[in-house]
């Protein structure tokens, strides 16, 4: 092999090894602008997400959301929830002992019967029965 081709091979190896020596670690660059990515990516990501979503908006029981209602309907709904919250607080206070813990027993209102059963080990089962329909809801909590 002539000296000239050995020199070329050595030079080629030197160039290849020099490129490998300049390699650096991988650096993650986020795409989503919410996580530090380029802000112009936002509309494209939103369009892609909107095009692929299969979620349909649930309109709730009444067919419209709270904000689609008139101010009077919103006020009445808020008032109704406040009254129900106060009734629930009153019922809960009658189910609590002086130490603030729930006491096993039965409490009745005009519309509901609430039964608290001690399951042992600090667990309670609370059953709420709708007196007009007989429907019940049961859940367990730690005391």
Automatic annotation (TrEMBL):
Checking InterPro entries in the record gives:
T8SS_CsgF
Keywords of this protein's UniProt record, alphabetized? Signal
Q: What protein does this entry describe? A: Curli production assembly/transport component CsgF
Where does the secretion signal sit in this chain? 1-23
Q: What task does this protein carry out?
A: May be involved in the biogenesis of curli organelles.
């Amino acid at each position: 092999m002539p000296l000239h081709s050995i020199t070329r091979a050595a030079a080629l190896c030197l160039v290849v090894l020099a490129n490998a020596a300049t390699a650096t670690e991988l650096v993650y660059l986020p795409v989503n602008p919410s996580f530090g990515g380029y802000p112009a990516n936002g509309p494209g990501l939103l369009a892609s997400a909107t095009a692929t979503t299969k979620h349909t908006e649930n309109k709730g029981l009444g067919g419209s959301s709270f904000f689609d209602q008139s101010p009077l309907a919103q006020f009445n709904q808020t008032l109704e929830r406040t009254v129900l919250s106060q009734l629930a607080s009153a019922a809960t206070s009658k189910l609590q002992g002086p130490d603030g813990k729930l006491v096993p027993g039965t409490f009745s209102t005009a519309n509901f019967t609430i039964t608290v059963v001690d399951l042992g080990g600090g667990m309670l089962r609370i059953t709420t029965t709708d007196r007009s329909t007989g429907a019940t809801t049961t859940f367990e909590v730690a005391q």
